[in-house]
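The passage that follows is intended for readers who have already worked through the single-chain material. We present the inputs for a multi-component assembly, then the predicted structure in tokenized form, and finally a short commentary. You are encouraged to pause after the input and sketch how you expect the pieces to fit together before reading on.
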Amino acid sequence: MNTDERYLYGDDDLAAERLDLVARLFEPSTAVLLDRLGPLTPALAIDVGCGPGHTTRLLHRVLSPGRTLGLDQSERYVRRASEDAPDGVVFACHDAREVPFPETPADVVYCRLLLAHLNRPMDVLAGWATQLVPGGVLMIDELDRAETDDAAFRRYLEVAVAVIERQGSALFAGPAIAAAAPPAGTQTVSNDTATIRLSPADAGRMFGMNLRVLRREGQVPADDAELVELQASLDAAVAGEVRPTCVLHQRQIVYRRA
Ligand SMILES: C[S@@+](CC[C@H](N)C(=O)[O-])C[C@H]1O[C@@H](n2cnc3c(N)ncnc32)[C@H](O)[C@@H]1O
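Having made your guess, compare it with the prediction:
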């Protein structure tokens, strides 16, 4: 394991605000996935890399599990998520690379936008699969690719890909996972992509926040002239000064344990 591997986007207020926006933009496609392929009223559902809890609450709302557990390595996110947790939803600090999880076995293990930050995602998934009941499902929801005709959005994506690559991981984690054999002891139930069409303002806001966090966390040089200019271009998209388009393709895979 890469010992430098750490979550690049932090967990302070701006980082949490960024995840609020991510949750709003990704919720429709995640809700369809859960509704279509998640088991209704499972006893235990686990959301790995839950952040401030948006995905955990969505999982709880759509599948109505007896108990829903959100896991994240960030104490700050776990505290934030726990503040307004509905009945039946609990959160705990846990490193996603480690099994066993604090509660097992799970009927559903779900994960969105975490595997992009972990080295050797297939090894991680193999561990998660062992935490399922027989017949339980492992559902993953990761970026596959992006299309944009806007130079600033394209440049932001290049910067983000490079920063994550430096850690030995892949922002667009979807293709490699989709091409790999399913984790041991599981079969692939579904392997598809969902499309997320971003308005220029939403793309500018999300990419702009991401870049601001990366600059502030020292992942890219904060004062680099080209990045300062890129920041201004992304902020201009939010203000509606340009009309670019951006489409994200989200890889959604469901495995079932034998
Ligand atoms: C992009 S956020 C996704 C949050 C949530 N799943 C969503 O889609 O809104 C990634 C989350 O994974 C967490 N994370 C990163 N590395 C982790 C690890 N090794 N173990 C547990 N959580 C981790 C981060 O703290 C962050 O909350």
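Commentary: The mean pLDDT is 94. The pocket of S-adenosylmethionine is lined by residues 7, 11, 19, 22-23, 49-51, 54-55, 72-74, 77, 95-97, 112-114, 117 (CB under 6 Å). How closely did your sketch match?
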